[in-house]
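**User:** Once you have settled down, spend some time on the protein underneath, comparing sequence with structure tokens, and judge whether sequence predicts the tokens.
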Amino acid sequence: MNSSFILQKRRRWETIQVFVFPLVFFLILWRLKAYEASVAERAKKAEQKATMEMDSDEARPVFMVPDPQFRAVKNDDLAFMDFPAPSCRADGSCPTIILVSGNDQTFAQRVAEKFFPNSSSMQEPIMGTSLYRNRRYSIQSDKCPVKKTVRPKNMEEGNITTECVQVLSLLRKNKAEINDVLFKGFVKSNKDGKINEIMTAFDLGDSSSKSFKVNIWFNETMKTSLSKYEEPSVPPARSLRESLAQSQSLVSNAYIKSLLGDTADIILDFLGEMPQNNDMAFAGMASDWLERILSEVSPIMFWLMFLQLLPIKLKTVVYDKQQRLRIMMKMHGLGDAAYWAISYLYALLISTIYIALVVVCCINLEISTVSKNSRVIVVGFFFIFVNMQISMAFLFSVFFSEVKTVTVVLNTLLVMAAALNLTLVTAMITQQQTPAKWIFFLDLNPWFSFFHGLMVLKEFGEAAMKQGTQGMTLYNFTQSNSGVRGVCTIMLVEWLIFLILAVYLDQVVPSGSGVKKPPLFFLRSATKRGHPEIADFLKSEESKVQNIEIGKDDVAREKETVEHLLRDPQNLKCSAICYNLKKVYPGEDGNPPTLAVKGLSLAFNTGECFGMLGPSGSGKTSFINVMTGLTEPTSGDAYVAGLDLHTQMDEIYNNMGICPQHDLLWDILTGREHLLFYGRLKNLKGKILDDAVEEALKSVKLFDKGVPDKFAGQYSGGMKRRLSVAISLIGNPKIVYLDEPSTGLDPASRITLWGVIKEAKKNRGIVLTTHSMEEAEHLCDRIGIFVDGSLECLGSPEQLKGRYGDTFVFSMTSEPSHDTDVFDFVKQFCPNAERVYHISGTQKFELPKMDIKLSDVFRVVKQAKQMFPIQAWGVSDTSLEDVFIKVATEAQAASLD
């Protein structure tokens, strides 16, 4: 389990991918809900404020009164005698100006006199405000007392003071003259920094006692010059609205008074918006929108959340198969049951954390699908589905051997299933007329059944939220028409079916766990009855094997030694023993059975390196697969450290190490972590494990600074090979199988590795397979040459060369025109010589050692140089390679006969 945690930690992006999707989804929902709440809060405050303004003078419309330093006075552009002198700006006593014009000047003057009350009037004062300071004004038609502050009724508010200001209503000829005054007083003068602001202006045009027509100019200074002054005390939009409203009210009221007298009055007492403002309307829209998202999207989002766990689980198992890491773990003692149990428990742990995250977020966000239904039902529903999904991932992994393929296929299936859920499945579930058997047929698909359950939980949750009641309870769950109970029952059954099928197919379908087993492997008697031709085949082959063994004295002696060891309790001193071991593969597609290992009897001694040589297909791999427990022997016996291969394989794993031909390593684990993992498989713990790892790293020269803690993916080819050898040696195994350990290494790395193997064989037996005769001669104490599943010869390299090396190899190179001369010359001094090679002037001969001496060869070559030109020549003793070729060739020729 600890190694699984390390692997998952290294695959951090896959882990992040699992949790990012739900976290992002819930974060978006949280922000939407927070925004909805803030909008609703603003709407509530706006409603409260509008209600309060109904009883407040603050809501009364006011004029925008220019500040004293900006009020219109005489200057070069405004040389009107009725404008105040500029000196009034010094003490802030300048009045504010209103311009009035009309075709009937007398009528216009009479209306203007009714605009504002004087100081002695009992009328309510007309109010104004300054845009740029906290200041209010009481506007009157006569001159204000110097430094007199007026506080009208209901106009005191905090630090805001109310001052008196005089207004001058000045008559102009027409609206063109008003436009000229306004332009010169503000726009033109503004360029020189001498602003002359007019409070407001009216043109009555053709107005008379029978008709009322008016044009109004209102002060819009805040829109054009706001950036030049301090922050406004009131919002500009509100100030403009109120100033225009007060101007309209002022001229309308003055018109009425000019006709009906001062007792007539039109009062615009309040100016405000409706209580239902934009914030409240948008709050309602946001709430409806969010509710619609949760109602329509939540089932498919939950579906996608949990379905994204499937590719992560599936790719992890397929990756182990693709990289053949599972075989490596199995050969070091991790059985199929333990592998599936660890993988299942770890996947379940991740899924359980995932369920807890989803449920907690849904409860806090008040998502009705989860928060309004019984927690027991919701969590149980999710828990059943994730268990069923783990089993489904294991089942899918049987049919895939590459991660890329499974990713493409699975993503395609998920997209298709999501589209069907949103269209066909949703329509069939929501329609009352859909027959129950059709729904049941849909629910047989685990992805559709999960979506069906989510739809039902959503409906119960929404109903509970609208009605203020409880959603699905345990009582509702037990009802036959609830839908969720039926879905849970189907997923429970599929959970068990998928798990059983995954374990079964993993054994009978070629996978990453070794050679496939027969379909009825779980019934041993049935398995044996399933291949009756094997027994007949063995009987027919028995006599052939015995005939082949005739004349192989060394092989016969080895068999006698094995028989003696099996009778002697001292056989425990041997690392491994096999006696009459046979392996037959059943025939397929009409082909006969294949005898891969033909009654092999061997004893592997402690402190010995045994070399297995042979051409491809000679049975070396089949023999190692039997001895390492990947396949069962058809017949015969084998013992490792005194443990029976048939009955004590689990214990044998703890006494066995293997270095496969190709490096089976995790790129995302360090060298130290590899050794820790395989050391735990050998039941090493605590300080013993740490010491064994350190010793293994030192033995293969991987203990330099930083090297043990580098990822294996960053190792060179030689470092990976040495790490594979170190893995095979961890735990001090009694027997170690090294399958071509130096393949692909440079000469320096090969020599280093040879030194490691020589040191390692001192206290254990080593079985070495190689195609390098140099390596076999350098490392092996004994060598066995295999051909067609049988052992052809056995002995030390010196013994084999002495037994089969009864010739010298003589080679000579000359001009092609002298090929005949060379041949005749060799035959003349050695009649029994055999030419074994001839091409482009180069010829090679085998000279029997009994017929010639080396001194004779040198003498005759000297003579030959006088007869014809010789470019090159050589003579050598028989090498191990020559022995291998000779034995293999003769054995294959004999088998064909």
User: Anything to note?
Assistant: The first strand starts at residue 63 and ends at 64. The mean pLDDT is 77. Residues 12-53 form the longest helix (42 residues).
